[in-house]
Design brief:
With 196 residues, the protein is mostly beta strands. The chain is 13% helix and 40% strand.
Length: 196
């Protein structure tokens, strides 16, 4: 379980394909604090630490993950948003995030709004996911508030701190991102469907 509050950025240092899997070596300031078999969110995708070497660690993404997220698009020196799993009893500063990406979306607008940034993302509605105005959404692992919720798109406003401390600063029109829709909103939607 995660909160969507990004702890640090990591840098992709090595990518190795083994059969249908992708091993990803990441350099990070928290590498020495990690443990083998620990769950860590990478752009919102929960992956298991399988190796640690000084300031670098390795995770493996399987075909299912590569098919449903932007992890397979990573390149050497890309920045990755990193969050370790929350501790029981910690404050929940973001919202409840499972680290299970629902689908990807594409950035269709990236606008500097004189001190903050407004990003708009478009997603495929075939999976029946929805956003809720002023509800929560996770974009590449970042807990955010939905602005301008539409049937197949939504926007988020980014403050300077988030811009500087996440990979949002690399987003441009056409960037593919990971989405995890609000788990509470998903269950409420499902309950409403069942009661009809």
């Amino acid at each position: 379980m995660f909160t969507g509050i990004i702890e640090t950025l990591g840098t992709v240092k090595q990518l190795s394909t083994i059969k249908d899997n992708l091993d990803i070596t990441i350099e990070s300031t928290i590498a020495s604090q990690l443990k083998i078999d620990q769950s860590v969110a990478h752009n919102g995708v929960c992956l298991t630490v399988v190796e640690i070497n000084d300031n670098q660690y390795k995770v493996t993404a399987i075909k299912e993950t590569l098919d449903k997220t932007n992890i397979g698009d990573l390149q050497i020196n890309d920045f990755v948003n990193i969050e370790r799993a929350m501790k029981l009893g910690d404050r929940l500063d973001g919202h409840i995030v499972q680290g299970h990406v629902d689908q990807t979306a594409v950035c269709i607008e990236a606008k500097d709004t004189n001190g903050s940034w407004l990003y708009t993302f478009e997603y495929d509605t075939k999976l029946n996911n929805i956003t809720i105005e002023k509800g929560s959404i996770t974009v590449n692992g970042v807990s955010l508030t939905v602005v301008n919720s539409q049937k197949n798109s939504f926007s988020v406003a980014i403050i300077p701190y988030t811009y500087e401390h996440t990979n949002f600063k690399q987003f441009k029109i056409g960037t593919k991102i990971n989405l995890e829709f609000d788990v509470i909103g998903k269950y409420v939607k499902r309950l409403n469907e069942l009661s009809l």
